[in-house]
Amino acid sequence: MAADASVVEVVLESDLKNVEVAEEVTRRVSNTAGFDEDEQHRIDMAVHESVINAIWHGNKNDPSKHIWLRFEIFSDRLEIRVRDQGNGYDPGHLPDPLSQENLLNVSGRGIFLIRTFMDDFRVESRAGQGTEVVLVKRLNSNNSAPSRREGP
Amino acid sequence: MSMKATLRQIDSVTVVDMSGRITLGEGCTTLRELIREQLGKGKKHLLLNLADVTYIDSSGIGELVSGFTTVSNQGGQLKLLNLTKKVHDLLQITKLYTVFDVHDDEAKAIGAFEKSAGA
């Protein structure tokens, strides 16, 4: 399938100052893929949260580590992979930030926003190879936030 | 672009005109320190004007929540003014729109503080 896609790959040093670089690349790629301005912002935010997770939780804020971004533009969708050098996590075990007892929590909304803004989100952790999150946004999808998607 | 904040005092209300990004790192730290500083000076009525905030992420939302609870716990009030569509949508998605007292008219927002203070 990758042969049918246009591919953009970026390697970043694991530093918060590079989050805006990732955002800029994401906006350009999502614009090229044909998403409108609102959808570009949602994709941008999903990548922003993913890259912060990779730097902060995956690479433990270690600037000697790296983040890999891979964008694949298909005719019907954009697939984005964000890979770090961490040990992974299980997104199925995160508390629901919308439940009454968590509503005023200071943290815990990043993955929720990614799920809300994208059509598909999955985490692939492989021993010794870091954690890779895969974000998928379909062109002309009906996922127009604000709306609640399933799960935290 | 990092976050910038300028302060105006109108009666008992400190209006904080914010611009730029409220994101993990500098933006969140600036907001946290600003609120702590104002509370330290006894300024407990804070109106955050978000009209020129270009970007807010999950950490920025968390910082707003933290500010809201910190100010409330000290007997004060924190209200929001002039949300952009993006911030408005984020607060709706996260169900926080009903938690915060949100205004789009500065005079009315300031009046809301006075009303609460006199109640």
Walk me through what this model shows.
The complex is a heterodimer of chains A (152) and B (119). Chain A is of the alpha+beta class and 152 residues long. Chain A is built from 3 helices and 5 strands. In chain A, strands 1-2-3-5-4 form a 5-stranded antiparallel beta sheet, with helices on one face. In chain A, β4 and β5 (131-138) form a beta hairpin. Chain A is globular, with a radius of gyration of 15 Å. In chain A, 36% of the residues are buried. With 119 residues, chain B is of the alpha/beta class. Chain B has a single domain (4-108), classed as STAS domain (Transcription Regulator spoIIAA, 2-Layer Sandwich). Chain B contains 4 helices and 5 strands. In chain B, strands 1-2-3-4-5 form a 5-stranded mixed beta sheet, with helices on both faces. In chain B, α1 (26-40) runs parallel beside α2 (58-73).
How are the SSEs placed, and which strands pair?
The complex is a heterodimer of chains A (152) and B (119).
Chain A lengths: L5 E8 L5 H15 L3 H22 L7 E8 L3 E7 L26 H8 L2 E6 L5 E8 L14
Helix pairs in contact in A: 1-2, 2-3
Chain B lengths: L3 E7 L2 E10 L3 H15 L4 E12 L1 H16 L3 E5 L3 H9 L7 E3 L2 H13 L1
Parallel strand pairs in B: 2-3, 3-4, 4-5
Antiparallel strand pairs in B: 1-2
Classify the beta-strand content of chain B into a percent band. Answer: 25-35%
In terms of quaternary structure, the protein is heterodimer
- From the N-terminal CA to the C-terminal CA of chain A, the straight-line distance is 30 Å
Q: Which segments of chain A are poorly predicted (pLDDT under 50) over 5 or more consecutive residues? A: 147-152
Short synopsis of the structure:
Chain A has 152 residues and is an alpha+beta fold. Chain A has one domain (2-138): 2-Layer Sandwich (Heat Shock Protein 90).
